[in-house]
Amino acid sequence: MTPIVCKKGKTIYALLTSVIESEDFAPTPVYGIRIMNENQKSEVLDISDNFDSVSSLFDLIVEEELYPEHLLDVAEDYLSGCFSNTVLSRLESE
Fold first, then answer.
1. pTM (2 d.p.)
2. What 3-state class would DSSP assign to 37?
3. Neighbouring C-alpha atoms within 13 Å toward the C-beta of 33
4. At a CB cut-off of 8 Å and minimum separation 6, what does 46 contact?
5. Are β-strands 4-8 and 41-48 bridged in parallel, bridged antiparallel, or unpaired?
6. Which uninterrupted H or E stretch holds 71?
7. pLDDT, tens digit, 9 for 90 and up, residues 25-63
8. Nearest to 53 by CA among 25, 75, 70, 28
9. 26-37 burial, b if ≥16 CB within 10 A, otherwise e?
């Protein structure tokens, strides 16, 4: 799958796909996010194997123009469920 890329100002956001391989499971595609600007690059390559949830998170990150230095914290909060309900209810209301 080709990465989805969006540019806002001098910041580039990318929704990425990679494959995790394990002895116990078949190769599984996982989705991650990269944010780059002229000074920094940050990426989390394996947020989830659920494309729709990572795509929703990606859309929110682009909309809010998140800086690279905050990506890891946002991904951790997302994975711990701190704001997944907020994201889902916001998307459902649109």
1. 0.81
2. coil
3. 30
4. 18, 20, 30, 31, 32
5. unpaired
6. helix 71-80
7. 899 999 999 999 999 999 999 999 999 999 999 999 999
8. 75
9. eeeebbbbbbbe
* Cα angle 64-87-28, degrees, rounded to a multiple of 5: 100
Tokens of 38: 């002229």
The domain ranges of the chain are: 4-93
Are 35 and 67 in contact by the 8 Å Cβ rule? The answer is yes
CA 94 – CA 92 distance, rounded (Å): 6
Mean pLDDT, rounded, of the chain:
86
Provide the residue type at 44 as one letter.
V
